[in-house]
Amino acid sequence: MEIVYVCGRLIFSLASNVYQKKLSHQGLHPFYIVATTYCVLSLLAAPFLGVIELKHLTYSFWVNVSLASLFDVAGWMFLVVSLSKTDLSVFGPLNAYKVVVSMLLAMLFLNEIPSVQGFLGVLIIIVGSFFLMPPVRAHQANRLINLLSDKGVRARFLSIVLFSVGTIFLKKSVGDGGALATMIFWSLIGLPLILISNYFFLPHKFQQEIKATKPHLYSILLIGLMVFFMQYLTLLLLENMLVAYALALFQLGMVMQVFIGYRVFNEKNILRKLLVSIVMMLGSLLVLVA
Q1: Could you say which DSSP state residue 289 is in?
Q2: Cα 203–88–196 angle (5° rounding)?
Q3: Which of 15, 124, 178, 251 is the most buried (most CB within 10 A)?
């Protein structure tokens, strides 16, 4: 069953990213795209409120699910910004840095010191990402500068950090209240948070964004459905303590995203990016099995 969860999450994640990128290229602001996603998530979650026994939900659950929602809303905002500004074939391989961030968080908060194999895996990921961008003026040293100067790449790194922190609280809330309760309230709490964010960051554009929504309703509904299923499958994996196993298989998404970037968005230098994604995938697997 865990294979079904992992494969389903992988497919829904990739498909939602493709549609989010398309919407951002059609003029909708990334923050507004996230707001519409949370509107759909809330509509899907609300009917399940009747099956949740609120009296059994602890104070710890409410704290953790609220913090998870806060970090994940911010993570989604920067994720869609990244999709709007950088190639999917660059965005995908950077997913390997989730493993690096998770390892750093474990070092900082759990006093877990990685093995030599773990550090080697991190080194492979960093060196691999060095080759994601073409060299500037034929100087190899400029590759890393070129990578970090890309606004989409910086947004992706920030989203990875936010999601990694959010996962800590998400896992705790699943342990306290279960996957379904966490899914429902993660969605419902996230909606006012993203609407407030849009109010402050898009004070003069929000009405224009709403008017521009009508031609994209199908895509918006589809993204919301895919994110709902993707997130619920993620919570089921967390509930069943399959996190390390899931993270390992999620890395397969890198190669798929590079390929889809080529097929759907006609992105360039695909052979080099495919080789880089495979190298970074191997590095992340070294960390996970260390």
Answers
A1: T
A2: 20
A3: 251
- The most confident of the ranges 41-45, 133-137, 157-161 is 41-45
Mean pLDDT for the stretch of residues 181-195: 98
| Reduced DSSP (H G I as helix, E B as strand, rest coil) percent helix, strand, coil of the chain, to 5 | 85, 0, 15
**Between 282 and 196, the higher pLDDT residue:** 196
Question: What is the pLDDT averaged over residues 140-151?
Answer: 71
Q: Among the residues of the chain, which ranges form H helices? A: 2-25, 30-45, 59-85, 88-91, 97-109, 116-129, 142-149, 151-177, 179-201, 206-211, 217-239, 243-250, 252-265, 270-288
Q: Which helix (H) or strand (E) segment is 103 a member of?
A: helix 97-109
* pLDDT over 90, % of the chain: 53
What is the SS3 assignment for 75? helix
- Widest CA span of the chain, in angstroms? 64
Contact call for residues 277 and 125 (beta carbons, < 8 A): no
Q: Within 10 Å of residue 266's Cβ, how many Cβ atoms?
A: 8
Query: What's the pLDDT at 263?
Result: 92
Q: How confident is the model at residue 65 (pLDDT cuts 50, 70, 90)?
A: very high
CA neighbor of 35 nearest in space, from 257, 216, 250: 216
- Cβ contacts of 83 within 8 Å, gap of 6 or more: 17, 20, 21, 24, 30, 91, 152
Residue among 232, 257, 281 nearest 4 (CA): 232
Locus of tokens 């968005």: 265
Q: What span, in angstroms and rounded, lies between the C-alpha atoms of 214 and 217?
A: 5
Q: How many CB atoms sit inside 10 A of residue 42's CB?
A: 18
> Could you tell me the pTM of the whole model?
0.90
